[in-house]
From TrEMBL:
Keywords: Membrane, Transmembrane, Transmembrane helix. One of its GO terms (molecular function) is sodium:proton antiporter activity. Pfam families: PhaG_MnhG_YufB. Signal peptide: none annotated. This is Cation:proton antiporter. It comes from the Bacteria. InterPro entries: PhaG_MnhG_YufB. NCBIfam families: CPA3_mnhG_phaG, PRK12674.1-5. It comes from Pseudidiomarina atlantica. The chain crosses the membrane at residues 12-34, 46-64, 70-91.
């Protein structure tokens, strides 16, 4: 295997470490945040950015060592399209099921009772 240029090593390392930091912060948020809605926010934002950073590092590595590599772009596109959609569906399900929230997590809908399945 050919040795990478110094600038490429630094840039690839930067993106991989940045991605790992974002993924770690998202995982830590999933563990530490108090309720479903706040826990949902941490992994959908930070982990998506984390995987994006690792994929950028991978694209750079394989593009410098071989030819231009865009296979990882398919993974990134799939991730960036599906993560927000799945988070939205999970949030709607959480609102629909009226999961317990902490006091500072507010429901800003005009009439939240119209979405309820509860028989009061």
């Amino acid at each position: 295997m050919n040795e990478l240029p110094q600038w490429a090593e630094w840039l690839i390392s930067f993106f991989i470490i940045l991605g790992a930091c974002f993924a770690f912060i998202g995982s830590l948020g999933l563990l530490r945040l108090p309720d479903f809605m706040t826990r949902l926010h941490a992994p959908t934002k930070n982990t998506t950015l984390g995987v994006g950073g690792v994929i950028l590092g991978s694209i750079l590595f394989f593009s410098v060592t071989d030819a231009l590599s865009l296979h990882e772009l398919l993974i990134a596109i799939f991730l960036f399209l599906t993560a927000p959609i799945s988070a939205h569906l999970l949030a709607k399900a959480g609102l629909h099921l009226e999961l317990k929230r902490i006091e500072s997590t507010r429901d800003l809908r005009k009439k939240p009772e119209q979405y309820s399945d509860r028989d009061d």
